Structure formats: structure tokens, C-alpha cells
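User: Show me an example of a complex going from sequences to C-alpha cells.

Assistant: Sure. Here are the input components:
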Amino acid sequence: MDKITLAHGAGGNASKNLINKIFKKYFSNKTLDALDDAAVLKISGLKAAFSTDSFVINPIFFNGGDIGKLSVCGTINDISMMGATPAAMSAAAIIEEGFPLKDLERIAKSMSVAAKNAGVEIVTGDTKVVKKGEADGIFINTSAIGVIKNGVNLSGKNAKSGDKIIVSGNIAEHGISIMLSRDNFGFKNNIKSDCACLNGLTGGILKVCPNVHVLRDPTRGGVAATLNEIAESSNVGIIIDAKSVPVAKEVAAICRVLGFDPLYIANEGKLLSIQSAADTVKVLNACQKNKLGKNAKVIAEVVNSPKGVWVKTASGALRKVLNSDMEQLPRIC
Amino acid sequence: MDKITLAHGAGGNASKNLINKIFKKYFSNKTLDALDDAAVLKISGLKAAFSTDSFVINPIFFNGGDIGKLSVCGTINDISMMGATPAAMSAAAIIEEGFPLKDLERIAKSMSVAAKNAGVEIVTGDTKVVKKGEADGIFINTSAIGVIKNGVNLSGKNAKSGDKIIVSGNIAEHGISIMLSRDNFGFKNNIKSDCACLNGLTGGILKVCPNVHVLRDPTRGGVAATLNEIAESSNVGIIIDAKSVPVAKEVAAICRVLGFDPLYIANEGKLLSIQSAADTVKVLNACQKNKLGKNAKVIAEVVNSPKGVWVKTASGALRKVLNSDMEQLPRIC
């Protein structure tokens, strides 16, 4: 391969290869190489999380949100998964000539509401305009800084044999909602993206259990890609109990018809929490107290072997959950 | 106007209107409203600068640099202009399907060299891929955080009557170089973009004179747009001495032929320093000691009236330097 393909942006194996072969090769440093959801670094003695994300979602307005809300929540979620309390945020737009000002205003308003709800201010920004045909509507980048309390030490490397894995609610809603908004395949449906800022939820979890091992939001590539990353970083196995994974009936039905596995579909308002078996009930309770975590379930456990990610089916057999090579849905975020 | 135009991205009046009518309306907060090159904020007691910029320059490889070097230096310069020492940087790429991997590698290498030279690490990143035709090659966003020492208090609001304005070297080289790389108009030329990271230069200035009033890098819209912003923020007048503005002969000649005023042309490795008359010689010396400031000159003075920006011509007459409404060169950065 000598050219960029859509798979390079899909969060699976091709993305991983691109990171290893180009970005890690040139940018390698201790902070970056952790490859967690956000960088964790010391700035003049202050423990901080720092993350960036560009959003190219299509369509820009969808059931449950828009590119503005997503661009705020996506990045707030990345620093929240490192246990940080958001301190400040940047926003930068690349806009195609001819883009309607009323749509820009609607997006700005949505960003402002999402930021206010998350308790963070957008303190700096940038706007670039390119000619008609040189971009598709609007792309938004956000970056965020947050402060991490002493004693909180989250990382994809920290999963341990015996740990339990909680998902904070029904999966696959963002990806399926976006897909149906592009082409509804003749389905009438009420599926909404789960797009939401999770810093309140992570704050609640860390309050009752500051020594959670891993928090992650399963976005591109879904739960499958995220758990594969964690299994590799922590050098463990993860066994998912198929029947315990919460999926709304309508989403499950559409996945069945279209041949998608919900485990591979993107979420934008869910998290995975990995903690010791002993801490699991209190974390589950903390999730369920928050409206964004009310359908939280224990879905998996961490084992020493077999390595990798597996689903235990109803019959008790183990099926390997591969890190997808496929771009199921481009421009999902 | 109900649609985005190229002028909205050009750094002049249309950009200002967009910021006031949409972004300030929805995002207004004390930190953002300062509208300096970077936000200055307290994070758990630490005084920090935070800035973001997206780079959409065309062509991506040009004489004197490329989109990678520019994306590192542009954002490092923004926080440096607030007096910050860079602490960490993010990088996010939006790439068009089919983009050559060897070009991506060349850009990553260039970013890595620029970051190393500036003494900053790229600690977090993101890659999105869009379909062929949905973007033009590659767009890069960078954000940076830096730490500001106590006693340093830079802002576009701080210019005072009697202050002198230094420019750190020959102007208009970035803009003219990019224009000629797109269409050389039959000229043979050796004009290089001045693209450079200025944190070494600002560090040198602040070492000898921590109470400099304003530092700014005159990028989009050139010296004219930057001085207009400062004159407005500080509610002062600025009188430029036309004959003292350093412009390389070849750049001046091309500007004459094409009818461009170098004051309006973008720079990517120059700064304007505004300080009291008494401090001006030591700041000038500090600039000239650094290879990026060796041709620094005093080019203007700050007055109480007339307000706005003016050029004193050879005959002694004052000509108003308007904030341009025109997009002279789209995708200049």
C-alpha cells in the first residue's frame, strides 16, 4: 500500500499500522507512546491530560446530535477517560466556501450548550475557509486540557486478570443512527446517536473508586476495537459474555438484518470501566445513578489466557473478536 | 451574506465579523474574549497559554517549508507571542483517500524536526480519512500548551502612546513565496517562506525585557491586519515609517509588479514587538543576536491620535492602512 485508504481512518488494524509505521517512528516519546485516549503529562508539576480530535462526521446534523455537540463531547470524553476534570477547550473549524451561515450558527450554539453542560469553556479558536470542493461542508477540531487528581492512574495497560468490565449502557447506537441517516434502507426507526459528554459519569465513578484500572470510550471500531487495544496493551485476555451485552431491540434487529455485529459499531456516549472484581458493584452502582449510565452492565472479565478478545456464546464456545480491518462506516465521527 | 466566503478565512474585516457575530455570541467568556494569539488561563494555579490552528496551505510543500513545519511553528508562535514556553503539542490530520504515504511520511518527519528544534514534544494526535474529493490532500490541526512566567503580561491591549514597534526582519516572504509556487507569473525567483518557530526569539526578548507590552506574529493579513487589531484593542494610533520597513529587494520588486502592498502579505517567521521607547534598544539588540531576528528594525511608533494605523510616506504625508476586506491569497496557511 502506498496510498492512504479509508481503513487508515477506521480505528482498526490499518490505523494501528499507520500509527506504528509513521507517527510513532517520527514522534515517539514517552507520553505519546502510551497511546491512551489522551496524553497524560506533567506541566510544571501539574498532572494533566491533553487530547485532540478532528470531526468529519457526515451528515453534520443527525438524530441525537450534530458535529458541534460531538466535537465537544468526543474530546471531553477522551480526557475524562484518563480521569481528568476538564479545564479548557479549543475549537478550530475548516469550512468549505458556500457553507450556510445559519448552519454554522446552529453548530456553534450546539457546541456552546454541550460545553456549558460539561462545565468547560472554549477559550481559543481558529477558522479556515477553503474553496468550494476542497472540503465537504465543515470539519471541526477540538483539543482539551484537564487536571488529574493525585492517586488517579488510568491506562489501557492496567487491566489485570480477574478484573470485571462494565459497559455504561446500550451499544452501537451512534454508528447505526449515522448509517440510517445516510441511507435508511427502507426502515422506519427512532434510533438516536448516544452522543454525550461523559465527564460527569467518570467523575461519579472515580469518586467511589479512585483506583479503577481502565476507563475507555468505545468510539471508532466499537467495543471490539477498544477491548482489543486494551487486551494488547495489558497483555491479557478478555472474555465477553455475549448475552450480557446491552443492545436496544431496534438496534439489534437492524444489525441482524444488515449483518453487522454491534460490538464493532461506534458509540459516542458510552464507556467501558475495568476494575477489580471487588470494586465492580460500587462502580456499577455509581454508573446506574447517572442518567447516562442507568443501563450499565457487567459484560466481560479479564483473564490471563487465552490472550486477545473472545465472545462466549450461548453454547459456551469461545469465538475470537478480531480487530476489524474493515471500514464499516466512514466519517462516523 | 448568508454563506461562508473565502474572505471569512482571510484574517481581515470579514473574519472579525464572523468572530463577533457567531463565535463571540455563543462562546463568550473572559479568556476567549481577549482574542489574543493564544488564550491565557489559570489551570490549577498555573498560568498557561493555549492555542489551536488548522493548516490548509496549498501547496503542501513549498520553498522554505511544508505544511508539517508550518503546523508546528504556527501554533508554537501563537503561544510564544503570549510569552509562554512550550510544554506540549497535539497534532491531528484530516487526510483525503489516495494521499501518498510517502508525502505523509515526509510531513511527519518535518513536524518532528520542527518540534525538536523548538524543544517541544507532540504528545497526542488523531487521524481522520475522508473519501477522495471530500478534502484536498491533507489538513493539519495543532494545539499547544505553554507555561507563562510570573511578571510576563503580554496582550494586544497593552500598546501605549510613546511605545516603539520592532519587526524582527524582512516581511512578506511567506505570502509571496506561496503565491509564486502556485503560479510563477514567468518570474525566476529564489524567494523562500520565512516559516520558523519563534519561541527562541521571544525567549531572548523576554529575558532582557520581561515587561514588553505586546508580541505578535503578523500572519494572515500581514503587518497591516495585526497592527490594526492591536490599535483597536489598545485604542491607540500606530504610525509606520514606510522607509524603515524591511523588505527584501526581490520581494519588493514582485510586489510592485503585481500591485501588492507587502504590509498585507502573510509572514510565518516574523514578530512585532511593542515596548516603551526606553526598552526598545535592548529588545532590538536581543532580536539581532538571534539569527531569526538579525534584520530587525524599528518600524513604527504608538500615538494617542490619530487612532488606527497609518503609514508616513517619504513626503511626510499619512496614508491610512486599512484592515483589508480582500482575500489576497487563500490557503496561505
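The lines above are the inputs; the final block is the predicted structure for all two components together. DSSP finds nine helices and 14 strands in chain B.
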